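pasting for ref
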Amino acid sequence: MDMSIAAMSVDLSLAKTQQELGISVLKIAMEADNSLAEEALEIVESLDPALGNNIDISI
């Protein structure tokens, strides 16, 4: 294994950059999931709580 120090430095720098990018993408995905969950919760909370409790059936 005759990798130079410069090549190892470049490889480590690339790995660090890739890791930081992965973390950033994960944070964006988590924020999107949180906002979707908040919107769904707002919709559910805005529904009439008595909705669906009674069914009128006429023949």
